[in-house]
Specification:
about 220 residues, mainly alpha, two-stranded antiparallel sheet, 2 strands, elongated
């Protein structure tokens, strides 16, 4: 049932194309749902080409070849290359006999590995001393955030229920009013038709009496 301009006490007039909580068009016309679904499916069909107003695709990271290559790798769904673990090893010079440059490279690698292990030891010591407290604080913050989000979700659910309840009550009330007005309109139209038919009958009777009067006057 389509609604017109309905003025309520809460605000100005509003226009309603349908009253889903009140209409029963689908029950009265079983084929209406199939027609609506076909129309929706036709609207959802993908277009053959882009609209002329759609801008061309944007090329990302044109000034950064590394990021551009990484984006291409992600788009092609290729796995990440494996980490090079050779630099975490301590190989000696491979040539025999080893030169001074070979020993110097091996020594530099040993210094790098020693510094790496020292940094790892420092980080582990910091984690052992302060990590538990940091995690407690982090967990407390996460719990507070989770409680806030749960409360927000419950408030939104309650608000949704109230909105749907008010909408249903309003549409039911308006639908009943529209049904009453439609019934009254039908009755008035029927009365008008009856009056018109009575007028036609009276005009015919008047014409008949007029002709009878003329016939009697001519005798």
């Amino acid at each position: 049932m389509s609604g017109g301009d309905i003025e309520t006490a809460q605000g100005p007039s509003m226009i309603f194309d349908s009253l889903p909580y009140y209409d029963n068009d689908l029950e009265r016309d079983p084929g209406l749902k199939d027609r609506a679904e076909r129309l929706i499916a036709r609207e959802l069909k993908p277009q053959q080409g882009l609209h002329p107003r759609v801008p061309p695709p944007i090329s990302l990271f044109t000034n950064n070849p590394l990021l551009q290559a990484e984006l291409a790798r992600i788009e092609s769904h290729k796995p990440l290359p494996q980490l090079d673990t050779s630099r975490y090893q301590l190989p000696g010079p491979t040539s025999s006999p080893a030169t001074e440059q070979d020993w110097q490279a091996a020594l530099n690698n040993a210094h790098a590995q020693l510094e790496h292990q020292r940094l790892r030891h420092t980080n582990l010591a910091l984690l052992q001393n302060y990590g538990s407290n940091v995690w407690r604080i982090h967990n407390y913050q996460m719990e507070a955030t989770a409680k806030y989000l749960d409360k927000t979700l419950e408030d939104l659910k309650q608000l949704t229920i109230e909105v749907n309840r008010d909408r249903k009550n309003f549409q039911t009330r308006v639908g009943t009013q529209l049904t009453t007005l439609e019934t009254r309109w039908t009755e008035l139209i029927s009365s008008v038709l009856q009056i018109e038919m009575a007028n036609v009958a009276l005009e015919a009777e008047i014409d008949r009496l007029g002709k009878r009067e003329v016939e009697l006057a001519s005798l």
